[in-house]
Amino acid sequence: MIGHLKRSTKRLFALILSIPLVILVGGVLYMFGMTYVEGAPRDFWTSLEWAAETLTTVGYGSESHWTHPAMTLFVIFFELVGMSFYVLIFPVFFLPYFEERFEQRLPGSLPEMAGRVLIHRYGPAVDSLVEELRHVGTAFVILEQDERQARRLRDRGYEVVFGSLDEQPEMLAGVETAQALITNSDDHADATFIMMARERGYTGTILALAEEPLHRPAMEKIGATAVFTPSHVLGAALAARASARISPKVEGLALLGERVGIADFRVQTGSPLAGQRLGTLRMRARYGVTVIGQWNGGRFAPAEGPETRIEARAILVVAGAHANLARVERMATPLRRHGPIVVAGYGAVGRKVVEMLRDAGESTIVIDEVADPAANVIGNVLDHATLERAEVRKASAVVLALSNDSAGVFATAVVRDYAPEVRLIARVNLAPNVARLYQAGADFALSVGQVAGQILAHHLLGEDAVRVEQRLKLARVAPGTLVDGHPWQAGIREKTATAVVAVERGTEVLVEFDQAFKVRADDVLFVCGTTDSLDKYMREYRATPAERPATPRPPGQQA
Questions:
Q1: How many C-beta neighbours within 10 Å does residue 346 have?
Q2: Strand pairing partners for 265?
Q3: For residue 376, which of 365, 387, 385 has the smallest C-alpha distance?
Q4: What is the pLDDT, as a whole number, of residue 61?
């Protein structure tokens, strides 16, 4: 029976039993001390009264004079024991007991689960999903075994059930009617949860977030509908951000041939571009380049017209002839495209990043604090000496795959200060910390919650409810209603957030147009933007994908 009592109740019982015991021991020792040390015998009850008065700090009556040093030391010691009881009794014993009695009890059984999603164990991986479920109005219940976590979730307004499935398997009663189940504990607990749910007759969808990819087949065999490893997916996403070999910065760029390119430039605070509007800069007229947009705080903002302002520290995406792009370098710093990719942190995420980069043929330098055969530099990423040994300033990108968000934020600030020009990509645990990483200087930051949320929301809601990142795409299209118009005419950016970066006429690719230039019906336009903005362009100008492939002629030849 005592084994089922709460810890605060057990402590209170221990206190109640210990006080009489201490008084009894103290009284007996005092009686023997007064008899054999002081030579002034006291009976048992007088000695017991003295012990009680001392322990409770009430004070003494006639028992207040001792001559032998041993007795004096004993009395002092017992007084300290009494003070210790006085100091500890309320915060350690009484307060927790009464807090548990008066605070709201957490439910220990599932509510009616029809139409609800049950989430087994809360954590960073399901944080974004929980917010998305609240946003779309899908009811959910969180089954949590950590009491403090359960109370925090309840205080945030989530419906929580608290308890241990190992000790209370009946907690899952009623799970049969749930809309879907998601388990986010360690792999062993996930397996137990899946089996218990199936044993109770649940036949719906069970999605599991696993720590180890090798456990996926076993989990699926015992009843999981699908098993995902968010940390590995996050590693793949970080690697794709760092390497153009894995995922090109602009999809379809090869269609333009060698004459035209798209480059990334960092706009320094002191650059003449920083804070200026496109209408003031007139980049097309002065430099023969087209500003596609800018990356700032991990989000791509298309250039939507002359009022678009270029932000300091943003990464500007510019298209044009290579000679013209070189002219932009005088005003902004081009991002390094060659050099090793430095990966700081060699945990589960870091290992996946390095694996994918090496499979793609990238040169990598691994920094880790713990000696590992795969680590090239052993040291703290916060130390400039470590960054120097890793040749961070010569890197094409730095990936911070640290497991602690606080360390990640500080490391971002340190690396950004040490190497202002390098492309900096950071891993995050909690989605709310993404903004802090951008503030510290990261170019791109992804959280495990964003990645897992995208996967889970897709399976539960049937759509890409959580977007992890945007991608630029170059489309080769027929002119549509732009025939007899100018490729840079007003309205294209404002209406569609896209830009016409080149025109294929015959066998020539043109990138600069005077005011008299008119689009012909047999021209092919190269339009750049995000997937959504390109869809807007196709609808707005009734454009269709071009049929014939681009065959640009060498520079200098005319159509």
A1: 19
A2: 316, 334
A3: 365
A4: 52
Q: Is 251 left (phi over 0), alpha (psi -120 to 50) or beta?
A: beta
pLDDT score recorded for residue 425: 93
Q: Is residue 133 part of a domain?
A: yes
Give residues with Cβ within 8 angstroms of 493, minimum separation 6: 302, 303, 304, 305, 308, 499
Judgement on whether residues 64 and 137 belong to the same structural domain of the protein: no
Is 546 domain-assigned? no
Q: Is position 433 within any domain?
A: yes
Counting the structural domains of the chain, the total is 3
What pLDDT band is residue 555 in, cutting at 50, 70 and 90?
very low
225 — pLDDT class (breaks 50, 70, 90): very high
Counting Cα atoms < 13 Å in the Cβ hemisphere of 75 gives: 20
Higher-confidence residue of 93 and 156: namely 156
The CATH number of residue 143's host domain is 3.40.50.720
Claim to verify: residue 451 and residue 351 sit in the same structural domain: yes
* CA–CA gap between residue 118 and residue 98 (Å, rounded): 32
Where does the pLDDT of residue 466 fall: very low under 50, low under 70, confident under 90, or very high at 90 and above?
very low
Cα(first)–Cα(last) distance of the chain, in Å? Answer: 94
End of a domain among 461, 478, 493? 461
For residues 377 and 155, give the distance between their C-alpha atoms in angstroms, rounded to a whole number: 44
The predicted model scores a pTM of: 0.66
Euclidean distance between CA atoms 543 and 479, whole angstroms: 6
Parent domain of 198? 117-228
The pLDDT value given to residue 70: 81
User: What is the DSSP secondary structure assignment for residue 3, as one 8-state letter?
Assistant: G
Q: Which of 401, 403, 413 is nearest to 437 (CA)?
A: 413
| Cα separation, 422 vs 445, whole angstroms | 14
**Long-range contacts, stretch 493-497, CB < 8 angstroms, 24+ apart:** 493/302, 493/303, 493/304, 493/305, 493/308, 494/304, 494/305, 495/536, 495/540, 496/529, 496/533, 496/534, 496/536, 496/537, 496/540, 496/541, 497/293, 497/302, 497/303, 497/304, 497/529, 497/530, 497/533, 497/536
449 with 357, same domain? Answer: yes
Cα 493 to Cα 463: distance, rounded to the nearest angstrom = 28
Q: Alpha carbon of 507 to those of 216, 356, 526: distances in Å?
A: 52, 38, 14
